[in-house]
Amino acid sequence: MLFKRWTEQFSDDLAIDLGTANTLVFVRGEGIVLNEPSVVAIHEADQSIIAVGREAKAMLGRTPGNIRVVRPLRDGVIADFDITERMLGYFISQTHRWQRMILRPRVVVGVPSGITQVERRAVRDAAMHAGARAVYLVEEPVAAAMGAGLPIEEPGGNLIVDIGGGTTEVAVISLAGVIYCKSVRIAGDQMDEAIRQHIRKHYNLLIGERRAEEIKINLGSAYPGEGERRTIEVKGRDLVGGFPKSVVLTEDEIREALRDSVMTIVETVRTCLEQTPPELAADIVDTGIVITGGGGLLRGLDRLIGAETQLPVTVAKDPMSCVALGVGRVLDELELLKKVAMRA
To answer: Are 131 and 100 in contact, with CB atoms under 8 Å apart?
Structure first.
């Protein structure tokens, strides 16, 4: 028992939001210390890692044939186990102080609620091989609700909409458990692809992933706003002539390009509400809906969901950090960890 207390005192336990688009690392006693894109650049000849995170993301679409840029997570789960393990190892080494490496950290990881047993094992194995001494998994909607400050341990209904890079999860939570959850693989990545397809179809212009994401951030919206309509100049390759060219896009056409993805999220919220027990539904009328995840930053999304459901909708204070803050919270609350950790 004394040894256990000693190891807990001198080990930097970590909480990780292992996201499709970004990975965030929370260190006990310090908060979020790392927020990097889940991207790795690899040298094809010897499979050595050239860059990880922002530096690797800057290489997307710009590498020679001997360098491959990989996003090892797709749709919220591990698509490339080896690269995910190496990426996690790099992030853990960046945040786990060298003088304490003799005591490997406990790691709590936020994962989508709908992942399979095989996918759970893959996340556990990747974290263990990356340097963890023990790994606990927490469902992302629960972690996001905790990070947003919702009273999930109380006997009341809380509806969370967590929009990440690969998946959107809508869940009703009460007494630290998920009452009902629906997950769809429509989120930030699919919105980026919808913008790329719109520009390709209407302008015969080919743009990259990074540029599509920039357009979504700067011009994307889900609900008509007030004031002057924004525009943006977009440069890419003409599919007809093959030469570089530029076009000007408007806020209205990007909103139309995102319409199918956004309405899928709205329908997912509606389905979740229809499956909610009456007592909890009555609670949600008062508490409303809380949006977390990077997708929650899409302009007007809260207004659209509010208009469609006739419920109060709020976006969390720091939506991108909610899952990391939530899994970080359980590092110091062992009883809460026992309640929310996924069973093996």
So the answer is: no
Return the structure tokens found at 89.
């190892």
Burial class (CB in 10 A: 0-12, 13-18, 19+), 327: buried
Domain boundaries, given as residue ranges, for the chain: 2-142+323-340, 151-186+260-318, 188-257
Answer yes or no: are the C-beta atoms of 323 and 161 closer than 8 Å. Answer: no
What is the C-alpha separation between 138 and 135, in angstroms, rounded? 10
Supply the pTM of this predicted model. 0.90
Phi-psi region of 76 (alpha: psi -120 to 50; beta: other; left: phi over 0): left
How many Å apart are CA 302 and CA 315, to the nearest integer?
A: 7
pLDDT digits (tens, 9 = 90+) for 87-121: 988 888 888 654 445 578 889 999 888 788 888 89
**Alpha helices (H) in 163-223, listed in sequence order:** 188-203, 209-219
User: Matching CATH topology for 151-186+260-318 and 188-257?
Assistant: no
User: Which CATH topology does 151-186+260-318 take?
Assistant: Nucleotidyltransferase; domain 5 (3.30.420)
